[in-house]
Fold this protein.
Amino acid sequence: MRTILSFALLFFGIIGNSQSQLIQTGKWRTHLSYKDVKICEATQRYVYAASDQGFFRVMMNYGDMEKLGKDEGFIGVEVTALTYSKSQDALVIGYNDGNIDLLINDRQVINVPGFYSKLLQGDKRILHICIEGDQALISTYFGLLTVDLISHEINDSYSNIGPNGTAIPVLSSAVVGDSVFVGSDKGVRSAKWSKSVNLNDYLQWHWSFQGTAAQNLCQFDGKLLFEMDSLVFVLDKGKTTAYLNDKRYVARIWNNERGTHIARQSEIRTISNGISTTESVNLISGATQFKDGIFWFSTGIGPGIIKKDPNGEISYMPDGPAYPTIFRMTQNASQILGTGGGVSSTFGNTFNNAGFYIYILSYAMIQYQIHK
């Protein structure tokens, strides 16, 4: 268990002093890329954003940005899933190595290491997180986990829930009424959601819809929404029909007190009380909505996290190199030059177009200049 509030005060002090002092001997400063944000999520106070290696948040009152990482108490580096539980005021954070952090009240970091610690061969990344009451349903390539947001422990894991007890990847999940649905690589499976049912018994599970990979499962007015082959379907009482039948990349489907939201290429669609409205966007890799109703989104190719402000889009991105690939570095007085570059395993061209970066450290300023 860790808390980041007291450190945040020290952290801001260090940043302020770093503009007039060099880093202390024996101390390290991390320089990560925050440009290509993939996913984002809003809590009651902040909007959180994650690129392939950088994690940060934007404070709503002032627009200040704070870099987050191991120095601030978080367990991992590459965040692959973010979901907020309003009832528990907990941000559930999933990492590429199977680790899970709970950020309580935007202050206290609690690690849930059970899945990370299991001896499993393969990709253990957290793929999707669904909040159901006081539980977080965690989707992985090895099956489904449930994390208790009160005791901060993994309650159960369901792995061999495919036909004849085979293991199937769980790409996302949702609870609708008295049933739990999981999206697999071959469609949607479901079972009764009850403490009296042993969900590790594959006989409790059945196909609700067969096809290709089913993702972005979400409860929708007593029905199930999901995405398959860039189309959005609705499953109601065993019948599946197309809900949005024009093929577009779907970044996220989620619920909050303002309705059900479908973030996909060129738009964020909101359905509330039977009325559908849209916000236009261009590229989109992730989206969220703050409590004031304003959407925030990312494109996956920069520039950081973008606020869909009524007066125009505003981007937020902490200082750092634009890309994580640094092949060579050299130093000249107060400047450090880093290049993307690189060679293949056979010393051939990698055609890396990341350009080069100049890191300037002076009495008055620390900044990056990015060149191509």
